[in-house]
Design goal:
flavoprotein; binds cytidine-5'-triphosphate; eight-stranded mixed β-sheet; Coenzyme A biosynthesis bifunctional protein CoaBC; Rossmann fold; globular; binds calcium ion
């Protein structure tokens, strides 16, 4: 089935998608962030609207235009993203975690701008762990039969790490991307393997993020049936 052939196989479903990358503030002007642009999550949201779903898009710091027909909830940090995803997931049929969630955040937020001082070495930045949203929603499904999808960007031993991550997170599907210089971050196209908890592997050849989005919804819709 080509990406242009659209059927309403997600009609009556509520799907929640997180997209973009979280930013963890150090002080009022600085943050720890990552290179995610939100393209894959926004493509998933547009595709789900086209297939008839009610879509909640939890968007972390993306500058992309809001997809027509989706409810967009804007968040900044991982803690805010967790809150928004958990709230929306309460009545969701599927949750897709496409956002790049910071694993750590600064242990302390400086309410005033951190200044340098002559002759003084900078203070090291202490970090603490952020909540793992994907593991949490996978472990405590808000609804029986809710489908949970995670993403993983890996640089080495992509499939081995992907299988291990799928098991550790407890999600139904894990979309594994190989990250390299021209792949994934900010790119229009990527290549992935979708790993399923039942052992199935669906390779998606190098191509537009829209096509990968379509394949992901195909796999989710098949699990609804
Ligand atoms: N994720 C999440 N909460 C976090 C970190 C990650 O929900 N605090 C989600 C991401 O949205 C993604 C999946 O978990 O769907 C995998 O993210 P990844 O960074 O690859 O996994 P980690 O468990 O953080 O492992 P790593 O140490 O390789 O970063
Ligand atoms: Ca991580």
């Amino acid at each position: 089935r080509g990406p242009e052939a659209v059927r309403a196989d997600l009609a009556g479903r509520h799907v929640v998608i997180s997209a973009g990358g979280t930013r963890e503030p150090l002080d009022p002007v600085r943050y720890l962030g990552n290179r995610s642009t939100g393209k894959q999550g926004y493509a998933l949201a547009r595709a789900a609207v086209a297939r008839g779903a009610r879509v909640t898009l939890v968007s972390a710091n993306s500058e992309l235009p809001a997809p027509a027909g989706a409810d967009v909830v804007r968040v900044g940090t991982a803690v805010q993203l967790r809150e928004a995803v958990l709230k929306a997931a309460a009545d969701a049929d599927a949750v897709v975690m496409a956002a790049a969630v910071a694993d750590f955040r600064p242990a302390h937020y400086a309410p005033g701008k951190i200044k340098k001082r002559d002759g003084q070495e900078p203070e090291p930045v202490a970090l603490v762990r952020n909540p793992d949203v994907l593991a949490e929603i996978s472990a405590e499904r808000a609804r029986p039969g809710q489908i949970v999808v995670g993403f993983a960007a890996e640089t080495d031993d992509v499939l081995v790490n992907g299988r291990e991550k799928l098991a550790r997170k407890g999600c139904d599907l894990l979309v594994v991307n190989e990250v390299g210089e021209h792949k994934t971050f900010g790119a229009e196209e990527n290549e992935a393997v979708v790993l399923a908890s039942d052992g199935a592997e669906t390779p998606v050849p190098y191509g537009p993020k829209e096509v990968l989005a379509g394949r992901i919804w195909d796999l989710v819709a098949a699990r609804f049936e």
